Amino acid sequence: MMVTLLGATTLVLVTLAPWVLSAAAGERPGGESRRRAGGGKNLKSPQKVEVDVIDDNFILRWNRSEESVGNVTFSFDYQKPEMDNWIKLPGCQNITSTKCNFSSLKLNVYEEIKLRIRAEKENTSSWYEVDSFTPFRKAQIGPPEVHLEAEDKAIVTYISPPGTEDSVMWALDRSSFIYSLVIWKNSSSVEERIQNIYSRHKISKLSPETTYCLKVKAALLTSRKIGVYSPVHCIKTTVENELPPPENVEVIVQNQNYILKWDYTYANMSFQVQWLHAFLKRNPGNHLYKWKQIPDCENVTTTQCVFPQNTFQKGIYLLRVQASDGNNTSFWSEEIKFDTEIQASLLPPVFNIRSLSDSLHISIGAPKWSENKPVIQDYPLIYEILFWENTSKAERKIIKKKTDVTIPNLKPLTVYCVKARAHSMDEKLNKSSVFSDVVCEETKSVLLRCINYVFFPSLKPSSNIDEYFSEQSLKNLLLSTSEEQIEKCLIIENISTIATVEETNQSDEDHKKYSSQTSQDSGNYSNEDESENKTSEELQQDFI
């Protein structure tokens, strides 16, 4: 009987042996070992794991536990969002130090990744899982590469973006880096900081035969990332050149032309001017061969050149000037930034005037940069209109955003003069045009209102009535009978005084009343006119 029980017990133990033995060895389901180290203690997991991402370099650092000494190694696994399983992290397997590099792993730098680490000796520790992270957000900007060239009074810096040319981390941002540098004389500790420069930059106004040192760092403002400084680079400027470069280069605007001016010490010199698209300076590499000559500014013998505004399309450019005496040439001047929208002049608007009996209607056209190139429409404009009686100097002003403007409450049969100018409403431009040429126009006789009421009660009078009929002939045509001559239209025989708006409105009402009672025309007309029904206060508001 005892033998039978013993046999049964042995059978159960044999059946349960696989998982019971695994549990006894400290191994969890899934193969994760929890075996104890010598002395009956578990091997502790590494702690305080740090991930450093600089450009395309991925570095892991961690602290080993007190027990993990001797022949302990460390290994990492990684997991991407689309993965269900953990995969061994290349470059970080069986590491004996507390640092490893996994830059060889091909990653989507905008996608999260998870890491975990464990220690391994005779047995293994439990996994220590690192907080998930997105490489691009984690990444820091490393130092840019810097190459220097010396002139007599300047140093030209050529800056390459951080990382390599095939950088994955900054693939979309290589042209978005901005740079700043610190420069100082090698014999002095006084530093000068220069901000927001291009990948190629000339530092001018230095001393000849002097050693200068500098360091450069990069930044991505859109990502709020600021890099670390490059190693210090030093270079000595050359012996002073026989011909100095032109100085104080500037662009001014006159009519439809640009005038480029500069200062120069010597006489009997010739000059040339070149231009470059500013955005090219943001791209890494040498762009010296991309500079182009301004056609009207080649071999000029004065310290200025003139070229039309339509030489350049909308954009930002760089300009530079070089001097020559035939045998020798100077270094290029400092490059100046030239923004066509900011530096170009805003030309005056064009407008047409149509006169009415007691008002002028003005239609304003957009200002123009040149005959064939309209003003940039991205920026709203506001118009300032001045008008006055031709026999008076008392100007009145109207400011309007709209391009159709009516000036009411004017005297009939009176010549008024008008001029206008445009103002940009954009703070960036902050430009105003000069005033346009003066245009003068005579207002119509109020007799035309009678024509409007009698013959065209619901329509505006024909625009060519004055062209074919004089005032006297129209008067005779309308007032052919004695009965019609007592019509209460405000007929002005000899204008020496001008009726007020209220008197005119009263006469209009009288005329409407008469017209509705005596007209024998059987047609259906409307005697309502929106502009005639306005009060004087409403007209004044329109004027303002």
Distance between the termini: 121 Å
Largest sheet: 5 strands, antiparallel
How many E strands? 33
The Rg value, from CA coordinates, equals 43 Å
Number of helices: 9
Overall helicity: 10-25%
Shape: elongated
- By helix and strand content, what is the structural category? alpha+beta
Strand content: 35-45%
Mean pLDDT comes to 75
Would you identify the regions where 5 or more consecutive residues have pLDDT less than 50? 1-40, 369-377, 464-544
Blueprint of the fold:
Elements: H1 2-24, E1 36-37, E2 41-42, E3 47-54, E4 57-63, E5 73-79, E6 87-88, E7 99-101, E8 113-120, E9 128-133, H2 135-138, E10 145-150, E11 155-160, E12 178-185, E13 191-197, E14 200-203, E15 211-220, E16 225-226, E17 233-236, E18 247-254, E19 257-263, E20 270-277, E21 292-300, E22 304-308, E23 316-324, E24 336-339, H3 340-343, E25 350-355, E26 360-365, E27 368-370, E28 373-374, E29 381-389, E30 396-400, E31 404-407, E32 415-424, E33 439-442, H4 447-454, H5 465-468, H6 471-478, H7 482-485, H8 501-518, H9 536-543
Antiparallel strand pairs: 1-2, 3-4, 4-7, 5-6, 5-8, 8-9, 10-11, 11-14, 12-13, 12-15, 15-16, 15-17, 18-19, 19-22, 20-21, 20-23, 23-24, 25-26, 26-31, 27-28, 29-30, 29-32, 32-33
Describe this structure in words.
There is one protein chain. It is built from 9 helices and 33 strands. The strands form 10 sheets. Strands 12, 13, 15, 16 and 17 form a 5-stranded antiparallel beta sheet that branches. A 4-stranded antiparallel beta sheet has the order 6-5-8-9.
